[in-house]
Protein 1
Amino acid sequence: MSSLPIGIFDSGVGGLTVLRAVRRRLPNENVIYLGDTARVPYGMKSRGTIERYAVEDAGFLIRKGVKMLVIACNTISAMARERLRAEFNLPLLSVLGPGARMAARVTRTGRIGVIATEATVESGAYERAIREASQDRGVEIFSRACPLFVPLVEEGETDSQIARLVAEQYLAPLREKRIDTLVLGCTHYPLLKPVINATIGAIGAEDVALVDSAEATAEETAHLLEKRGLINQSADAGVSRFYVTDAAGRFHRIAEKILEEPLDHLEAVEVWGHDKLETK
Amino acid sequence: MSSLPIGIFDSGVGGLTVLRAVRRRLPNENVIYLGDTARVPYGMKSRGTIERYAVEDAGFLIRKGVKMLVIACNTISAMARERLRAEFNLPLLSVLGPGARMAARVTRTGRIGVIATEATVESGAYERAIREASQDRGVEIFSRACPLFVPLVEEGETDSQIARLVAEQYLAPLREKRIDTLVLGCTHYPLLKPVINATIGAIGAEDVALVDSAEATAEETAHLLEKRGLINQSADAGVSRFYVTDAAGRFHRIAEKILEEPLDHLEAVEVWGHDKLETK
């Protein structure tokens, strides 16, 4: 069981920032990654659609044989986490919890900004998770949907004048709220860190802490595997395999840029039409 | 047969610009519109995926009972038109042909720009269609993918500083080519007309003609129905019904803005899982 891979999935390429962090933290683990590139993006779609896609994505990884699932997409985490827990019986970690707990830990003033997709913001999931992690300390949370950030990243417009202008438009209201911590509540957003930092990295003399849940998720993945006795005992370097639902060309290009290494195994697959057989 | 509705489909809301033109040209026709909002956008996906989606979309409308199909999406037109003609046996018109023929008609210098999605540009379909429509007259065609235009329209950023900056970036190279005609090769783009006009509406003292294939498509739809004896003889105003594959809320909001009237009938449906039964 412990030699089985970790399953990581996302609507597209964004979750690769999580995969990269998991590989660094757990270099001996094998990983299977699924990007649902035929139906990307999820962020402006409805709960019903996102739940259905998430069950199909997870079902595919479970059929491949994985020891745990990491939801490397904040939209799926916010909208479909409970549905996945109800459907499947294996350790499940989502990026949302680690990100929220990290934000509660690093804030000094309790004024926390959250930027995410429309679906994630509308779900209120980050606000609930941050409040829960903050327990009795008073926090004020200011959320903002940034719908153009994902297309900017997908188009490689991560450090251009357009990216700076879009960031200014989205982040100026949060600057006015004098937040001291900003949660990057979408796995695409770490790729915009330089622009986000330039726009809101400091307010007056105070630095604003950017919370990138990839690192926090990798850390919690390691703890969860340790706790369950599921750490891979092999001394060999782990192997990553990649699956996408659309043709592989575009994913390949962006993935090698994010991971800064060639992909060992990349394959186009279908994930739909099986979900009814795969639930517990 | 002639009282059956016209079926119009698109990956999302863009095709509503075509529906609007068809309703104005043919006010007594009934129309069914399908927007595949659960899987939008198509423009950066592969031919195999776009063909599969197009067959499922068309199959849905044919099961509903339509007398002809209008492909109100340039990406589907460019990538899947031939596949649809092979699969289904009914009159089929796509926005690409009318747009290309109009461009060939209006150009004076023969220097024609085409802006479209990545998939449409890569297919080369517009260049082939414009050359065919131009016959022996020499034309030079300059194509440019504008991947951020669709998200801008979907987010309502149609007349902002961001929109102007993105338009400048995409259109400056076409301005340098001194085109006299610009094909808006994606049904979303007419909603950016004011910004596109401000950026490239004139080069020096010469106006650049913007070709919006919606009007041309409505005109060819009317001709095709007349030729086949399929014009609806009823004197009553036609009725439009709308179907989407994701939840209806977001579509409803954007659609009423584009159509400038309330939607009579809007319903969320599934279109997948039937295509094998529906082909001829």
Protein 2
Amino acid sequence: MQLIETVRALQERSEAERAAGRRIALVPTMGALHAGHLALLEEARRRADRVWVSIFVNPTQFDDPADLARYPRSFEADLDACRAAGAALVFAPASAEMYPDGMQTAIEVGELSWPLCGATRSGHFRAVGTIVAKLLLAAKPHVAVFGEKDFQQLAVIRRMVRDLNFDVEIVGAPIVRDADGLALSSRNRRLDAEARRQATALVQALDAAEAAASDGVRDAARLLSAVRAKIARAPRAELEYAELRDPETLRPAPAQLGGPTLLALAVHMRLADGGAERVRLIDNRVLRPALRAGGSAG
Amino acid sequence: MQLIETVRALQERSEAERAAGRRIALVPTMGALHAGHLALLEEARRRADRVWVSIFVNPTQFDDPADLARYPRSFEADLDACRAAGAALVFAPASAEMYPDGMQTAIEVGELSWPLCGATRSGHFRAVGTIVAKLLLAAKPHVAVFGEKDFQQLAVIRRMVRDLNFDVEIVGAPIVRDADGLALSSRNRRLDAEARRQATALVQALDAAEAAASDGVRDAARLLSAVRAKIARAPRAELEYAELRDPETLRPAPAQLGGPTLLALAVHMRLADGGAERVRLIDNRVLRPALRAGGSAG
């Protein structure tokens, strides 16, 4: 497995692979790899001849410097995991390589960036769009694989790729969950035992809403109160948002759901009872409300 | 010569040329081709195996709809000119191909976009950056050639390419001038005879400043008054700006020039005496002030 640290060297490698007729799949990560990332690598392997992983904790997408400082890092273990998973190459640039002196260019995706995580994390998706564009232009892959846990991020990236004519296929891979249902996230490492236990409230809330939708409940307010009731049962959890939105446009869903609808959650788990430190977790599911006899197709 | 109208077809063509080991040079234009453009094509030919020209009058970069409506168009003649100049391919997309439904992504280059033309043309460089990125991602050339008449545009594009890791070499080609010195521009076609005659005030102003700088004048205020005096002798000309700036950063030059300095001009030429209709022209030159005995190297 090759370790590359400069954009120039990566571009040369990409040109050489392309000239040899090989397909490249890139898996962009911020390291702290877990089984969710490994599922992305497997998806990449199914779609290309070479699996490349980038590991870069992008400072500009953290709105809170403390969150950046505490973001888990495990570089040597990450390299081992990539090697074991059959990655051909890891791209791990220093910050100065990605943010050269005088850097002043940014990519903005409009409407898709505004709600949900965009509402509280100022500049987050601008930073995400910019760094992903940079990684795509550095690696020049045929395919890039992202996790569906960051649903809005995936929507923003798909839109950017289409809008700017990037010649790359964007693939979303399903959320990977622990045995008790908690969506895998690098941030889970920061949870204490009690917060970890209570964090299952997120998936329980999604399950409850999905079960209700399958039973024919299409009333958005009713679905969201079922969600809030589940979160309320976890005293360590503070709900940032629970929203129903169109999965394509991320516009608010109608009061009566008419078709597939994104249910997206963001929750802050307090570490230690009464403590100020919190870990932000997100999760989502696309609900497919059942059509009952006499119901409208919307 | 091949005529291509879709991004997809252009990307496939690019992949095929690259797979065959051929170098592509792209010359992005808004059509209405003149000898200045042909010089860009010659420069492209020197640097690549295939010269590709894009012809797209980008609506979003016109801040004034009337300016867009009046922008000269000569598509058939442009195709003939490209063919005669040995272009292998012309990319001429419809507006809907470049601006698909729901398009919401834009590229912003910061500080370099703010002064000079950016001060009055709101959103202009955001639109330029975005469309040039789209053209680079559609054609995937090895080289792209731009004219130095649009000095700030070239600076913005160079910065964007470096900041986002575009794997393309950006080449600037010198300004081409008519026999009397007027910089070639598609907009010159809109000048009446008198405005055309008086438009030479721009190059005379540049010449005057350059002569003064060569004589050792390094006082910015003195150089700019020489410029303004020349423009004032053309009653049809209204000065928008005359500025001395650092050629790399476009920051204001010091009161005493210390090294190579951009002198940039924008002038509106009134069509018919007292008429409201005007044609906006720009021109520039990099002054290289002589160091006089006892002068400071700055």
